[in-house]
Write a structure and sequence with these properties.
globular; alpha+beta; 183 residues; two-stranded antiparallel sheet; 6 helices; 6-stranded antiparallel sheet
Amino acid sequence: MHANNSVVAIFDSHETAEGAVKKLTAGGFDMKNLSIVGKGYHTEEKVVGFYSTGDRVRFWGARGAFWGGLWGLFLSGMFVTVPFIGSVVVLGYFAATLVSALETAVVVGGLSALGAGFYSLGIPKDSVLEYESAIRADSFVVMAHGSADEVAKAKEILSGASASRVDVHLAPAAKNVPVAVHA
């Protein structure tokens, strides 16, 4: 894993986010280098919950089948309540990063725990605030992590997957390395 190189895409629906994850895996990306973040439920729902059955997790609510299906694909995940955002499901590489940020009490001025997790990946604070706002507005964030070349390949895939926004964030040492993206 090449830390702190990532591409972040925002999707307006869980269907397009799930489709993007499938396109990334079909493109050769290892699930351990992918992440997805979104609310665990629609704000108008009254009941939200989940339970674990061994290595499977079942979710209740309108997005239960979506989250339950993806949970089995990713190696790690978490369900957390974030102030001002609500209940959020985090699957993949970013879940471990977020847990680490919470356990070491990483707090960045003005950011939630979720924002501190994004920031710990090397994502600039202004982008972090935009990603938190997107999640608050019921969008989904899909991330791919890896080398500069892998991130460029992921950007190409995500740009063709109906994302409303796609950003690349390279580690400081990698920013001087040219990134070839084929249109």
